[in-house]
Amino acid sequence: MIIETILFDFDGTLAELHIDFDEMKQRIAQIAAPYLGHHPEPSAIPALEWIDWIAQQFQHGKSALAPAFRSQALASIEAMEMEAALRGKLFSFTRPMLQNLHRRGVQIAVVTRNCARAVRTVFPDGERLGIHLFARDHVPQVKPNPHHLHTALKALDASPFHTLMVGDHPLDIETGKRVGVRTAGVASGRVSLMDLHACHPDWVAQDCAALVRILDAGQFLPKESIYGTHFA
Length: 232
What we know:
The protein is of the alpha/beta class. It has helices at residues 21-36, 47-56, 66-87, 94-103, 116-122, 147-156, 170-179, 193-197, 208-217; strands at 5-8, 15-16, 89-90, 107-111, 131-134, 163-167, 182-186, 203-205.
């Protein structure tokens, strides 16, 4: 089996970005308080899903205000993502690794819950390097909803059997398994190798550069462009 397409998560996988998710939920709670009449206690579920849950709690008389709440809450999240993006950076291995894969004919995409503006701030030359972006702005439902990966696969005309999803979080592995692609966990984010192993991905590595070496050793990557020429 040769991997022809790789879908990468962004934060913690290709780039170093520091977002305080506890602070993010506190900001969401402050926005929600005037709508609900009380300050909601932050939930353990991710921020985007928590926004949806809060909107569903609006009483019938206030249900028409749900779109305004969602808009304010998402704007708050995007502001934090942009703050992190301005301080963030790609890992040192990211560009050389992606250029190497591109030369060899591997289709590459970033599939992220982050906003497109933040990704392009950290990685402004991504499109020039032939990398497709499927951010939160581009889909109605983000991973772990399989729609996010299905959208990428359809746009790339990629076969799930020849596709690999790479991420630093169990959520990435879970989403890949739902869609039927191969999965790999990398410990370059906030999740340990041990915890990634517990999710039973096909591969686990310290980071994406190490993962490519593992895939090369197992002859899972093309040695040259599948189109017969090398890309510059």
